[in-house]
Amino acid sequence: MSSASRAMLSKVRRLVPPMLEHFHKGQLGRVAVIGGSADYTGAPYFSAMASARLGCDLSYVFCEPSAAPTIKSYSPNLMVSPILRSVASISQTQKDHGASGEELAKPILDMLPRLHVLVIGPGLGRDEVTQKQVKAVIEAARKSDPPLPMVLDADALWLVQTDPDLIRGYKECILTPNVVEFGRLAKSVGLHQSSGDASKVCQELADKLGGVCIIQKGPVDYISQGRDTTTSDFEGGLKRSGGQGDTLTGSLGTFLAWRQVYHEGLWDVGDEKMDRAETLLVAAFAGSAITRECSRRAYQKRQRSLQASDLTEEVHEAFLSLIGEPTEQQDKKSNL
């Protein structure tokens, strides 16, 4: 492990809340995954379960009605609400009157004050009604008090590349593009990539988007919020099965929830408190590190048969190995 990674993990540990008797249900994370459609039911499940396995208290899925029974059948631990609309699921009256995104999104908008974080994109699809609804949710999340942190992936990134101003300047947001999605995002803001320093290009894109945090996924993950840049180069597995990125989005959701209560002072975090730009980068690094460790562990056991569900089963052990419970932090630090 590099000295830079050790330093980042020490910061990650400062974001992890201790398990204290006086905490009540929901304080250590209320994360909602927005996604799931008729064709894609696994992605929101893997994301929400990663968030739950990492340690958030309440894990929600807001999905399209046709997806809800299937996702519910995967696990009774998730709260699954069929309140994401599509062309097929809205009423004829709404079609005839051209319902606005805000009208369609009202059931989700009503939930926002109860949440710490939104994860938008797993299994979302590109249905025009769904995309209009999600756009309204993102706009409302930015205006909420306090602003609601978000993770955007998959078809939520497609929405952003068509309208970069949707998230421009929103410093409570993490984007998780792969190499193709990164290229499209860069093109959408007029950033011409070269064969130079990939980490520098990542920082330039984050800066052009006004300080959002970007995790550029690849053989190593480059991470920047436009001010600072770091690299997550932990060993991963060699199998590239679909759905592994959903472990990343769910893990990021929990770390962003812990980041939120860190800044709220839910527990004693000491005198040297990190600012929000730094904790955004730290949370992004943490999600990347956990996911890569899950992939490594799962691949050791499953080799080429590895599936996304195998990563889900490794989340807790990956957390203990890389970060550890707060009561163990000093011992872990001495062993690095």
Automatic annotation (TrEMBL):
<keyword id="KW-0963">Cytoplasm</keyword>
<feature type="binding site">
    <location>
        <begin position="217"/>
        <end position="221"/>
    </location>
    <ligand>
        <name>ATP</name>
    </ligand>
</feature>
<keyword id="KW-0456">Lyase</keyword>
<keyword id="KW-0521">NADP</keyword>
<keyword id="KW-0547">Nucleotide-binding</keyword>
<protein>
    <recommendedName>
        <fullName>ATP-dependent (S)-NAD(P)H-hydrate dehydratase</fullName>
        <ecNumber>4.2.1.93</ecNumber>
    </recommendedName>
</protein>
<feature type="binding site">
    <location>
        <begin position="236"/>
        <end position="245"/>
    </location>
    <ligand>
        <name>ATP</name>
    </ligand>
</feature>
<dbReference type="GO" id="GO:0047453">
    <property type="term" value="F:ATP-dependent NAD(P)H-hydrate dehydratase activity"/>
</dbReference>
<comment type="similarity">
    <text>Belongs to the NnrD/CARKD family.</text>
</comment>
<dbReference type="InterPro" id="IPR000631">
    <property type="entry name" value="CARKD"/>
</dbReference>
<comment type="function">
    <text>Catalyzes the dehydration of the S-form of NAD(P)HX at the expense of ATP, which is converted to ADP. Together with NAD(P)HX epimerase, which catalyzes the epimerization of the S- and R-forms, the enzyme allows the repair of both epimers of NAD(P)HX, a damaged form of NAD(P)H that is a result of enzymatic or heat-dependent hydration.</text>
</comment>
<feature type="binding site">
    <location>
        <begin position="178"/>
        <end position="184"/>
    </location>
    <ligand>
        <name>(6S)-NADPHX</name>
    </ligand>
</feature>
<feature type="binding site">
    <location>
        <position position="123"/>
    </location>
    <ligand>
        <name>(6S)-NADPHX</name>
    </ligand>
</feature>
<dbReference type="GO" id="GO:0110051">
    <property type="term" value="P:metabolite repair"/>
</dbReference>
<dbReference type="InterPro" id="IPR017953">
    <property type="entry name" value="Carbohydrate_kinase_pred_CS"/>
</dbReference>
<dbReference type="GO" id="GO:0005737">
    <property type="term" value="C:cytoplasm"/>
</dbReference>
<keyword id="KW-0067">ATP-binding</keyword>
<dbReference type="GO" id="GO:0005524">
    <property type="term" value="F:ATP binding"/>
</dbReference>
<keyword id="KW-0597">Phosphoprotein</keyword>
<dbReference type="Pfam" id="PF01256">
    <property type="entry name" value="Carb_kinase"/>
</dbReference>
<keyword id="KW-0520">NAD</keyword>
<feature type="domain" description="YjeF C-terminal">
    <location>
        <begin position="8"/>
        <end position="322"/>
    </location>
</feature>
<dbReference type="GO" id="GO:0046496">
    <property type="term" value="P:nicotinamide nucleotide metabolic process"/>
</dbReference>
<dbReference type="InterPro" id="IPR029056">
    <property type="entry name" value="Ribokinase-like"/>
</dbReference>
<feature type="binding site">
    <location>
        <position position="246"/>
    </location>
    <ligand>
        <name>(6S)-NADPHX</name>
    </ligand>
</feature>
